[in-house]
Amino acid sequence: MIAMLLLAACLNPITNDFVLEDQAFLDALPQSTARTELPAQTELQRGANGFMATVESMLSWIDIVTAQPPNVRESDRRVWGPYPEELADFSWKLEIIRTEPGAYTWTFTRQRGGETVWIPFFRGESLTGYAAAESKGAFVYDASLITPLTGDDDFGQLEADYDFIGARRIDSILTAPSGARSWYTLEQYEDTVDLWFFTQMDLEQNGSGLEDYEQSGRWLLSGAGRSDIEVTGGDLGPIVGVITECWDDMGTVTYRGNIVEGIFEETTGDINRCVFEETITRR
Fold it and tell me: Whole-model pTM?
């Protein structure tokens, strides 16, 4: 018995080091809850929250998996799983590899029951070593890779670069199953939030061409803000249409301008009541 206790005493420090270092691997993962809830009085703000909800629904995989301790612990590697998917005939696992001090790659994979191939559908890389809850990196979630398993590809693919050091910023590209692409940037500062969005769409829905649609918005965490939309191309050709909207802390519109250069101009409210005087542009 004494010999067994002495052996355990010798082994425990190594085991404990591995267990304590689990947190370093967890810190390499983007956190689904690492943001402040944003105001949602206006369509733009609700759109920002909707975008973040989409991102967080993917990152929720991380929360589910890492609620349990890793199944494999090695000096520069941790593996969670494989775990069976409830009510489905496939399993999934998460692997995190430390490529150098403070640098990590991570991959979620799925496998159909009875098969040997693991399909990577969610992967990323990150740099850590900053203050608590601060990191930066990139990830790709590709639903098309697991369509053969799930039969569902309503989402498409999301590519994102994030920087949660100081100001919290996410730059992303969303590719729909149809191939249509949209670009988003959401940046949160101490007292303001910026949202930039660009896509191409057939606004007239007449099949004659796609317009470039670009929207930039900024608002205070108290709620008041401004949005500027610019539309050109497609049916408009070189003509540029601009829609500006400002609102107060309650979400009440204080100014709205709809201007198509040289053709049409309509305004309501008082532009001097805009909390931000200048046109919002991407930072």
Answer: 0.79
